[in-house]
Amino acid sequence: MVIKDGAKMSKSKGNVVDPDALIKRYGADTARLFSLFAAPPEKDLDWNEQGVDGCYRFLNRVWKLVHEQLEAASAAPALDPSALSDEERSLRRAVHKTLKKVTEDIDERFHFNTAIAAVMELMNTLQGARLNTPQAAAVMKEALELVVVMLAPFVPHITEELWQLLGHTTPLSATAWPAWDSEAVVDEELLVVVQVNGKLRSKLSVAVGLDEESIKQMALADDKVKVFTDGLQVRKVIYVPGKLVNIVVG
């Protein structure tokens, strides 16, 4: 159901939105994107002009970023995951995590709104990236292509044009949906919270696979933690794998 100004749209109430006028002003892709982004299928859609304009601006950001990066992407070498820096690897991880989420949201949950939101978040990450190596260009090229592919079910017109602009001759509509890189989505670090007597005192970034004893020692040596443990007897150190360390003092 489509709602406007708190009421169900109907001709009798004179509160309907003219789709022709909307499409003429913003384009069919924007109208589609807003309709799918504003609410999941099982809920009412609250129509508002600000939301439509926001979707229009988002598509313009995608268009602009592709054009800004086109020259570098065209000259990019083949992507070599083993040759990436930490920053480049982190960016690629964000791209493939987004692809994984979008795929699952569409195929398993039918939640188009959260899939679109994930691509919007990824765009913020891509626009903030400051990478200037050949492999960085390769990562960005892959990222832009996957953004275009992920948006294609929602905005088929602009994505088809961008796909061709990126150098593809096979139509996007005839291109298979990509699979995410299972190795790329694996986190290299975990965020472990540290408590003292059950109260949050610090947070640690620890390497995935680091042994329990090393993590406990890192927690005990943390300066923010030592403020609350110095001069007290450590009675027990409890580790919940991948989540927290609780230091019991008395």
What does this protein structure show overall?
With 250 residues, the chain is of the alpha/beta class. It has 2 domains: 2-174, Isoleucyl-tRNA Synthetase, Domain 1; 189-249, Ubiquitin-like (UB roll) (Roll), CATH 3.10.20. The protein is 50% helix and 15% strand. Strands 5-4-7-6 form a 4-stranded mixed β-sheet, with helices on one face. Helix 2 crosses helix 3 and helix 4 (86-109) packs parallel to helix 6 (134-151). It is elongated and about 75 Å long. The protein starts with a strand and ends with a strand. 24% of the residues are buried.
Keywords summarizing the entry:
250 residues, alpha/beta, Isoleucyl-tRNA Synthetase, Domain 1, Ubiquitin-like (UB roll), 2 domains, four-stranded mixed beta sheet, three-stranded mixed beta sheet, 50% helix, elongated
Quick description:
The chain has 250 residues and is α/β, with parallel strands linked by helices. It has 2 domains: 2-174, Isoleucyl-tRNA Synthetase, Domain 1 (Orthogonal Bundle); 189-249, Roll (Ubiquitin-like (UB roll)). It is built from 9 helices and 7 strands, in the order ββααβαααααββααββ.
